[in-house]
């Protein structure tokens, strides 16, 4: 399967907009659908320090996330994105097997830009819920430019 999305419109039949919070201590953000905006062929994903109170689980931050509704397997992936340069914000592109919340076999590949230093991309990957690659954290790659 192959696809390209120029985001001239936001196709909700293809893209799922996250609108929930999770009851755990390591996830500090609730996702709000209103924080995803389409304008002029771009999607903006917002984040701020608004305390989420209308979700099941109160979180100190509110952010945004979109996910494709389709399955994509082995292949070539390309993303054109601008990372946030704000300290504490993680701008990311990730692939996972969509069984993260209920499965015994969590598989995931992350490309993460940490707002404190967007000249480096952090890559994590998990197989059967075990971190692979770097033993003590993500593989860090110096980009040679600022992604923010």
Automatic annotation (TrEMBL):
The active site is at 108 (nucleophile), 112 (proton donor). Residues 5-148 form the GH16 domain. Keywords: Glycosidase, Hydrolase. Gene3D superfamilies: 2.60.120.200. One of its GO terms (molecular function) is hydrolase activity, hydrolyzing O-glycosyl compounds. It comes from the Bacteria. One of its GO terms (biological process) is carbohydrate metabolic process. Pfam families: Glyco_hydro_16 (PF00722). Belongs to the glycosyl hydrolase 16 family. This is Glycosyl hydrolases family 16. It comes from Tropicimonas isoalkanivorans.
